[in-house]
Design brief:
The complex is a heterodimer of chains A (477) and B (395). With 477 residues, chain A is of the alpha+beta class. In chain A, 40% of the residues lie in helices and 21% in strands. Classes of the chains: A alpha+beta (477), B alpha/beta (395). Chain A binds chain B through residues 39, 42-51, 78, 80, 82, 84, 87-90, 269, 271-274, 276-279, and chain B through 23, 29, 31, 36, 39, 41-43, 45, 134-139, 142-143, 169-173, 245-246, 248-249, 252-255, 257-259, 269, 273, 293, 296-298, 301, 305, 309.
Chain lengths: 477, 395
């Protein structure tokens, strides 16, 4: 008998909303433990939730990007369970009227295009984090993550292999990142996934017994887990040695096995009910249209436009992997920079600096207008290429204006810089021995003078120009 | 037992007492429960700075029954207040009568302050829902509870209400300021209906008390019609369903982990939760928790909880119909003039009278054994009506 695998996914994505969903605490990654907390997100008595408008807009954006219908009246509900990382003992989520429903996402498979149905997208708050301290053998709670806004994207059981799941997740990630909903970084936990899987004889229309693997946080683990779990299900059905039960399982990526966590019988009743402290959110046409107007082109459409404008295919696709890179490039082009030059600068100097500063492409700190100005300065010969790299570094670090910075720091090419002239004269005057050595044919002596001059100028000058000036001064002696 | 759980001996300005569900950063807030004994809030409820900025002083924290769910404060962890005859006397009214507070702010969900005022010769207003911020109340029944004002006179209630009412961004349900201000221009109340079925279950002395107040209204030119109504009594089961469910959810945060009472007797997290809650909550609270978690279960949500939500809509629509013919509805505040022994049923039984205004968020004034329920934003009109019976200038 041949079997087919039926998979549905619940994907949790942390939204890039700057603050938490129901209070004004920051939601930054890597903060000190319990640094981003207030009485509201700690679930203290007396605090009431206040809806973060930006979160609703990001939820709408996600829904629109995934071709969903937006619920024009959307509400929040409370989900009750006890766990120490959940300070109010309930999670505020959307159960009855989620922000978006009935969408679809197109993926490429070996057999061509396939549409994966989206059942719903709902907004909710994240829980905190338990940290076990081996030294004192205690468990500590970090509430930084409580009430960080999430969306959960629930797919229909339309996926049939690990490969399709990976394609779907990569597509979700590309769309959500491009629309600025989330940075979707598996390694930081801003994208996580629950896998619901069952198998059935090929051609059957009934669904088999389903198991759920929770909190998967890498594509490779998801791929292995799906292959393992599908094989386990088929084996159980064929050999009959194990009875399949509807349950939640934990994937151990190191051992390459899944383990039973809890079965349906012991699963708690979450006692959902409408949250009376949050008014229904009504999305009128004006609001809907305003959010729709901010939607970006799809990444592939954007890439096609870049190729039309003369960029190579590879460069175009590299650009659309990050909305930020596209925004910088578009702004530079808008400011009059040729598109190829802008792309070259982004992928050479800008990315080099990003790597050095440990920034991702999404965090590229220069803006397109300033980058265009710098490129123009290089093209018209005002700043040399090596000096331009130094100007760019200052733009990265302090957000300086390229022209002003170059002028103030002696980085203009061929300009008559009195300061440089004075220093050159000074070092040549103060080092008669070096001058004599140079005259006697020791070229290295000139480099010693160059080094001293550079030091006195605090490296604020064009090296090529300085070298020329030193030789010119030596020639005069 | 003392009226105050904490008393401020050095009050600056006119003294206003706060019931012990209103969080204060300077005084502990226990909500009448062993669970929160000694709990210090990190912040003040919104009503506190509103009072202070207007020149009022905080007289102290008034002893309440556990989460103020009971009849007259008898379930307080700190003990009940009784007179020489053993009758329950609410600490809320005592804060004014014996401790000389100018007014007392009271959290009103199950009607305790309405009974307290109506039986003690004081005046009380439960304002229109969402006109006074609930920020900083120990939340029990968010969909219906409000901060009310008790004082000796209707003018005293109006004075304090005008200070604490107002829009608050920190409360997502808070109404816009212009809607709240509209209460100041409400039409006067001229014609009221008394619902006869509610008069049947009263003790003889309670009937007398209610009839005396009705006579006083009539003497002041108010037209009173007695009508029968079979819908309003349905507020009782609906309200108890909603309030038990919300209470169950809201106080689930008291789990012994972060603050409040923690059992000494546990070996794992399950036992920490169970034993802390078992040892700290009183019987009435536990009954509500059991019922509340039951009505929210998957099996009972649609047939019970959802039905109660729909009943709330029916009741609100029904009130609107009544208000087409009458300016206000008069109900007794409770069934007896005095309570000695109460059990968990008593609190439920008495909610027959208080549930209609609670479930629909309507303003209600209580005095002389009765409650007068008005349309939304008729708060000051209700107080003007009460003022007439006090012998004040009739308009």
């Amino acid at each position: 008998m041949k079997f087919e695998t039926v998979i549905g996914l619940e994907v949790h994505v942390e939204m890039s909303a700057n603050s938490k969903i129901f209070c004004s605490c920051g939601a930054k990654y890597g903060a000190e433990q319990n640094e981003c907390v207030c009485p509201a997100c700690c679930g203290m008595p007396g605090m009431l939730p206040v809806m973060n408008r930006r979160v609703v807009e990001l939820g709408m954006t996600a829904g629109m990007m995934l071709n969903c219908r937006i619920n024009r009246t959307t509400t929040f509900d409370k989900k009750s369970y006890y766990y120490p990382d959940l300070p109010a003992s309930y999670q505020t989520t959307q159960w009855f009227a989620p922000i978006a429903v009935d969408g679809k996402v197109k993926i490429e498979t070996d057999n061509g295009e396939k549409f994966i149905g989206i059942k719903q997208i709902h907004m909710e708050e994240d829980a905190g984090k338990l940290v076990h301290d081996d030294w004192t053998d205690t468990t500590l709670v970090d509430f930084n993550r409580t009430s960080v806004p999430l969306i959960e994207i629930v797919s229909r059981p339309d996926l049939s292999s690990a490969k399709e799941v990976i394609a779907y997740l990569e597509r979700l990630r590309a769309l959500l990142r491009f629309a600025g909903v989330s940075d979707c970084r598996w390694e930081m936990g801003t994208m996580r996934c629950d896998v619901n899987l069952s198998v059935r004889p090929e051609g059957s229309t009934e669904l088999g017994v389903r198991t759920e693997m929770k909190n998967m946080n890498s594509l490779s683990a998801i791929e292995k887990a799906i292959e393992y779990e599908a094989a386990r299900h088929i084996d159980a059905i064929v050999s009959g040695t194990e009875e399949l039960v509807q349950e939640t399982r934990r994937w151990d990526d190191i051992k390459g096995k899944s383990y039973s966590m809890r079965s349906k019988e012991t699963a708690g009743d979450y006692r959902y009910f409408p949250d009376p402290t949050l008014m229904p959110i009504v999305i009128d046409d004006a609001w809907y249209d305003a959010v729709q107007a901010t939607l970006p082109l799809l990444p592939e459409d954007k890439a096609a436009l870049y190729m039309e404008a003369g960029l190579e295919e590879k460069t175009a696709w590299q650009l659309v992997a990050s909305r930020r890179l596209c925004d910088v490039l578009d702004a530079a082009v808008e400011a009059g920079c040729p598109i190829k030059d802008a792309a070259n600068w982004i992928f050479s100097d800008c990315m080099k600096l990003c790597n050095r500063e440990k920034l991702t492409a999404d965090e590229l700190p220069v803006n397109g207008q300033d980058l265009a100005k710098l490129i123009a300065l290089v093209k018209n010969g005002t700043v040399t290429r090596p000096n331009a790299a130094r100007v760019l570094a200052a733009m990265f670090k302090d957000g300086v204006q390229p022209e002003t910075f170059a002028a103030e720091n002696g980085l203009l090419a061929g300009g008559n810089d009195d300061r440089v002239d004075a220093v050159v004269k000074q070092v040549v005057d103060e080092n008669p021995k070096a001058v004599a050595d140079f005259k006697a044919g020791k070229e290295k002596a000139a480099m010693a003078l160059f080094g001293q001059a550079m030091k006195l100028l605090n490296k604020n000058c064009d090296p090529q120009q300085l070298k020329e000036k030193i030789f010119a001064e030596l020639a005069k002696r | 037992m003392a009226v105050f759980t904490v008393k401020n001996e050095n009050v600056q300005g006119k003294a206003v007492a706060l019931d012990d569900l209103i969080l204060t950063k300077d005084y502990p807030t226990a909500a009448g429960s062993k669970m929160l004994e000694g709990f210090m809030s990190l912040f003040d409820a919104e009503v506190v700075p509103r009072l202070q900025n207007a020149g009022y002083g905080i007289a102290g924290k008034v002893n309440v029954g556990e989460f103020s769910l009971d009849v007259l404060g008898e379930t307080s962890h700190f003990g009940a207040n009784r007179d020489q005859n053993g009758n329950l006397v609410s600490a809320l009214s005592e804060s004014i009568k014996t401790e000389n507070a100018f007014a007392c702010l009271c959290t009103d969900s199950n009607g305790t302050p309405r009974r307290a005022a109506a039986l003690s010769g004081l005046c009380y207003i439960k304002p229109t829902y969402a006109t006074v911020s609930r920020y900083g109340l120990v939340a029990c029944v968010c969909s219906g509870e409000t901060v009310g004002v008790m004082a000796k006179t209707a003018d005293g209630c109006a004075e304090i209400l005008s200070v604490i009412a107002g829009h608050d961004d920190k409360d997502g349900t808070s109404l816009p300021q212009n809607m709240i201000d509209s209460a100041k221009n409400a039409d006067p109340i001229c014609k009221v209906a008394v619902i006869s079925s509610f008069m049947n279950g009263l003790s003889a002395d309670m009937s007398e008390k209610v009839n005396a107040s009705l006579a006083s209204l009539r003497a002041n030119g108010i037209e009173i019609e007695e009508i029968d109504d079979s819908v309003l009594p349905l507020a009782q089961p609906a309200w108890n369903t909603l309030s038990a469910a919300e209470l169950c959810n809201n106080i689930s945060r008291f789990d012994g982990v972060k603050y409040g009472y923690r059992t000494a007797n546990y070996k794992n997290i399950e036992e920490l939760y169970t034993n802390s809650r078992t040892e700290a909550f009183g019987l009435l609270t536990k009954m509500q928790l059991l019922y509340g978690s039951e009505v929210l279960s998957t099996e009972n949500y649609m047939p019970v909880y959802d039905k109660a939500l729909r009943m709330r809509r029916v009741l609100c629509a029904h009130f609107s119909e009544l208000f087409a013919s009458y300016d206000a509805i008069v109900l007794p505040a409770c069934s007896q003039t005095a309570y000695v022994e109460t059990d968990t049923d008593t609190a439920y039984n008495e909610s027959l009278y208080t549930a209609p205004a609670s479930i629909c968020g309507l303003p209600v004034a209580a005095f002389g054994g009765i409650q007068i329920i008005g349309k939304a934003f008729s708060d000051y009109a209700l107080l003007s009506l009460v003022k007439k019976t006090e012998g004040g200038a009739a308009q």
